[in-house]
Amino acid sequence: MKVLQINSVCGIRSTGRICTDIARVLEAEGHECKIAYGREQVPEQYQKYAYAITSNWGNRLDGLKSRLFDNAGFNSTLATRRLVRWMREYDPDVIHLHNLHGYYINVDVLFRALKKMDKPVVWSLHDCWSFTGHCSHFAVAGCEKWKNGCHNCPQTHVYPASLGYDRSKRNYDQKKRAFTAVKNMTIVPASRWLGNLVKQSFLGEYDVRVIPNGIDLDRFHPTDGDFRQQYGIADKKMVLAVASAWGKNKGLNDLFKLADLLGDDYRVVVVGLKPEQMKLVPENVTGITRTNDVQQLAHIYTTADVFVNPTYQDTYPTVNLEAQACGTPVITYRTGGSVESVPPTQVVEQGDLNALCEAVKRLDTCTVLQADFSAETSFRNYVELYKEKLAK
């Protein structure tokens, strides 16, 4: 069996690691897999799977057009046509889509090709971008226009941000036309929460199968190191938060306020900050820039006493799984699919900093990782889905 995956990144961050882990499972069973990706550097060990769809300049040009014209997902026409020609040469048995946003592909060109190729398609949804006219999340905005047709978007300023032009109605109509009527496509949301939204959208015509993301327990497990000594916090209780991109909706400001509430006995450590964000970190918080070193990340998770995820918008964050796999209990806001991987007693209401502080102080025992958080379980579910679709 030959499987082609398409994603914005390959081998890095959550969706990129999901792609390479699926490839690893397929390869172990004697199957073949390639990953067509859109941006950033691929770690050396995963380059055997990788096919670059566009260049850094292509990403920048696509991003510029998206900002000017609010048409993210409808640029990179030539790069996508080259991809389609390569796809036909590679001739996969199954095509597995992941994030199609990220300034690297033209979804209209891609889906016209998918309809002509008539191959089984699996589409893993990690957010809501596929069925909106602009945004990847709409919970904070409280917007439900996506149910019947986007227009007058209240979030043109958020990713994928435009400079004020609102093309949300046209984007919605184009996506609906492109993404519907694919003969053999299964939609795979990463959480029950997202699955319920998909069924209310124009993608609800498809077979919807929820497969939660898993993690590689060979990489994320209790790991020794000297992180506390290195950062001078050996005498503190460590509260950790990790994200690939921090901002208001990820709860960065709440973490800074939490540090004040917890007092001097605790140290809040935030991993994944951009260089410009590091300048804003208060003295009682330890900030660390983003790392793709999984071993280092596993050690940081292990070192922490508590992991906090104060996210206001999320689908099924793998950071919750990674922390628990390293023996660290997780506290999360009641947000989207974030609650689905955390015991109910460790869920607090969004923005309730006093409750978050109290939860941190009382949580001093490790949460046992559930078996279905394993990457092997998740990825073998995908392999079985591939086989099922080929059998049909």
CATH fold category name of the largest domain: Rossmann fold
* Beta strand count: 13
Tally of separate domains:
2
Structural class: alpha/beta
Categorize the overall geometry: globular
Strand content: 15-25%
**What about the largest sheet?**
7 strands, parallel
Radius of gyration from CA coordinates? 21 Å
CATH C-level class of the largest domain is Alpha Beta
What is the count of DSSP helices, taking H or I runs of 4+ residues?
13
- CATH homology superfamily name of the largest domain: Glycogen Phosphorylase B
The CATH level-2 architecture of the largest domain is identified as: 3-Layer(aba) Sandwich
Order of helices and strands: EHEEHHEHEHEHEHEHEHEHEHEEHH
Q: What percent of residues adopt helix (DSSP H or I)?
A: 25-40%
- Weakly predicted, low-confidence segments: none
Q: What average pLDDT do the residues reach?
A: 94
The end-to-end span amounts to 14 Å
Task: Give a verbal description of the structure.
With 392 residues, the chain is an alpha/beta fold. It has two domains: 2-214 and 374-391, Glycogen Phosphorylase B (Rossmann fold), CATH 3.40.50.2000; 227-372, Rossmann fold (3-Layer(aba) Sandwich). 35% of the residues lie in helices and 15% in strands. The chain has 13 helices and 13 strands. It has helices at residues 13-28, 56-69, 77-90, 107-117, 168-179, 192-199, 227-230, 252-262, 275-278, 294-303, 318-325, 353-362, 375-391, and strands at residues 2-7, 32-37, 50-52, 94-97, 121-125, 185-189, 207-208, 237-242, 266-273, 285-289, 306-309, 330-333, 347-348. The strands form two sheets. A seven-stranded parallel beta sheet has the order 3-2-1-4-5-6-7. The protein has a six-stranded parallel beta sheet with strand order 10-9-8-11-12-13, with helices on both faces. Helix 6 (192-199) links the parallel strand 6 and strand 7. The longest helix has 17 residues, at 375-391. The model has no long low-confidence stretch (mean pLDDT 94).
